[in-house]
Amino acid sequence: MVELLVVIAIIAILAAVVVLIINPLELTRRTRDSARLSDLASLQQAINVAVQEATDTGEAILCTGGSYPCGGSTGAGRSGGSGAGTRNSNGTGWVKVNLSSQQSVSVPTLPVDPLNNDTYHYTYCADNDAWEINAVLESVKEIGRMANDGGDENAQDTTGRYEVGSNLTLITSGGTPCAY
């Protein structure tokens, strides 16, 4: 009986050590951050190609069907949130650039954040000739990217943002010209 208890205790200690070393929650966060970084890189490439191929003005390309500043968000309950139509890539979704008509890059539907809630979501903003997309990263490994992306939202917590685009000051906490 004592031997059985010793074996069970050893197995429990090994299981605890494995869980601490592997840290499944951090691995899940890293997976979501990897998806976020991939989504933003793909959108950045697609928008840059759209701007290069277009013959219209910056406003007509970056704010399809509207005036600038224009923007959208994927977060639940947010302006342009995760409701019907927000994933359309024809300029009516949360990104206001018509990516469906591009010949060089194919974006059939717009991505949304893996969590897509009030804290973790994507936000788009464009003005006359510049654009920005933001996301919050959550893993310990990737959170430093928010401070080193060249943008103005540099905190390494959920108040900071990972920013891509041609003007990394368009989306701010204060809301001018677009709020996160």
Please render the helix and strand layout as text.
Elements: H1 2-22, H2 24-53, H3 58-62, E1 70-73, E2 123-126, E3 131-135, E4 162-165, E5 171-172, E6 178-179
Parallel strand pairs: 5-6
Antiparallel strand pairs: 1-2, 2-3, 3-4
Describe the fold and architecture.
The protein is α+β, with helices and mostly antiparallel strands and 180 residues long. 31% of the residues lie in helices and 12% in strands. It has three helices and six strands, in the order H-H-H-E-E-E-E-E-E. The strands form two sheets. The protein has a four-stranded antiparallel sheet, with helices on one face. It has a two-stranded parallel sheet with strand order 5-6. The termini are far apart.
Average of pLDDT: 85
* Element-by-element helix/strand order: HHHEEEEEE
- Provide the gyration radius in Å: 21 Å
- What's the overall geometry? elongated
Number of DSSP E strands: 6
Total number of helices: 3
Strand order of the largest sheet: 1-2-3-4
Q: Report strand %.
A: 5-15%
Helix proportion: 25-40%
Major sheet: size, sense and barrel closure? 4 strands, antiparallel
Measure the end-to-end span. 61 Å
Number of domains: 1
Outline the low-pLDDT stretches. none
**Class of secondary structure makeup:** alpha+beta
